[in-house]
Write a structure and sequence with these properties.
Blueprint (H helix, E strand, L loop, with lengths): L4 E4 L3 H7 L3 E6 L5 H12 L3 E9 L3 E6 L2 E6 L3 E8 L6 H4 L7
Antiparallel strand pairs: 1-2, 2-6, 3-6, 4-5
Length: 101
Amino acid sequence: MIQLIKKPLITEKAMNLASQRQYVFEVHPSANKIQIRKALEEMFEVNIISIRTTNIKGKNKTKMTRRGMMRGKTSLKKKAYITLAVGQEIELVSGVGSDTE
């Protein structure tokens, strides 16, 4: 079985969404919402109200080297925005950055 949930995304925008019980995860590009829901509910033991997914296309990259122009492309990514039921949170994501003074 492929690893569906790659990692939680810890960005400024994602941390602002955490106050609204919404969390962002990078998931495998071929994963669907049903698989994502099942995996997250088993992993964190929470009730998920809704899931929104978005596909991020790979970007074309070009750099100049001694051998000439090198062209490449970044890989396709997929994000899942999940909303939890009232009174629930994910400690792995919500605990980041709370110890700042």
